[in-house]
Design a protein that fits this description.
Elements lengths: L1 E5 L3 H13 L3 E5 L2 H10 L4 E5 L7 H10 L6 E5 L4 H9 L4 E4 L4 H19 L3 E3 L2 E4 L4 E4 L2 E3 L3 H12 L4 E3 H9 L8 H14 L8 E4 L3 E4 L10
Parallel strand pairs: 1-2, 1-3, 3-4, 4-5
Antiparallel strand pairs: 6-7, 7-8, 8-9, 10-12, 11-12
Helix pairs in contact: 2-3, 6-7, 6-8
Bound molecules: calcium ion.
Calcium ion binds next to loops.
Length: 230
């Protein structure tokens, strides 16, 4: 899960970043409201942890601007004081939940999981792309009714490609989806993974599912005949 933390207090930001990273989240950070809004608009996020008192744009204003841009990213607000006004103001502005400082990490993680659950369940439905069916939840893949066994990373790659079947998915998007933005992987890692997926997903002598878009990324082809441009 990819989380954006917007917090201006350096020690609190570092504490949150480290703690969420250790809990398996992919973490992005911003220390002022304007940068936070720009990042929240530019990236597909699973959730956002938002401080209220921020320089350049406060948490309420950021949230209003985000909701005005139709972004439904779940937002957990951090409030310094447990005052009813502040909480009501935040929830009215489109926050999904709030947490009062100081808080415990298990509580923070539980709240984040709770606000992201409806989205995850929706996102995790089986994906159908031609005769290939991918179910990221049950971790099963079928081609032409035949079950195919994939590794965890191959499954992530196929999920990302199949969700956008017919469109080129950039190398950067794939790398971040599979390994997370925090993890540096060598440039060859993605190509190695693509080749191992191809070896499993392509029927011998059949159509190539995963096409290379030179210099840009990869594309999942579900329609017959589309491989002419490979
Ligand atoms: Ca603050």
């Amino acid at each position: 899960m990819r989380i954006l933390i917007v917090e201006d207090e350096p020690r609190m930001l570092e504490l949150l970043r480290q703690g969420l990273y250790e809990h398996g989240f992919t973490v992005m950070t911003a220390s002022d409201g304007e940068t936070g809004l720009a990042m929240a608009t530019a990236h597909e996020l699973d959730a956002m942890v938002l401080d209220i008192g921020l320089p350049r744009l406060d948490g309420y204003a950021l949230l209003r601007a985000l909701r005005a841009s139709e972004r439904r990213t779940p937002v957990l607000m951090l409030t310094a004081r447990d005052t009813e006004d502040e909480i009501i103001h935040g929830l009215d502005g489109g926050a999904d939940d709030y947490l009062t400082k100081p808080f415990s990490f298990p509580e923070l993680v539980a709240r984040l999981q709770s606000i992201t659950r409806p989205r995850r369940e929706k996102a995790d439905c089986a994906i159908r792309a031609g005769d290939v069916v991918v179910d990221p939840v049950r971790r099963t893949v079928w081609r032409n009714g035949e079950s195919i066994s994939l590794t965890r990373l191959e499954l992530l790659l196929l999920t990302c490609l199949a969700r956008q079947a017919g469109q080129c998915v950039s190398r950067q998007t794939l790398i971040e989806f599979i390994w997370g933005a925090e993890h540096a992987v060598g440039p060859g890692a993605l190509d190695v993974l693509v080749n191992s997926l191809r070896a499993k997903i392509d029927a011998p002598g059949g159509q190539k599912r995963v096409g290379t878009v030179r210099g840009r990324g990869y594309i999942f082809r579900s329609a017959a005949g589309a491989e002419k441009n490979a």
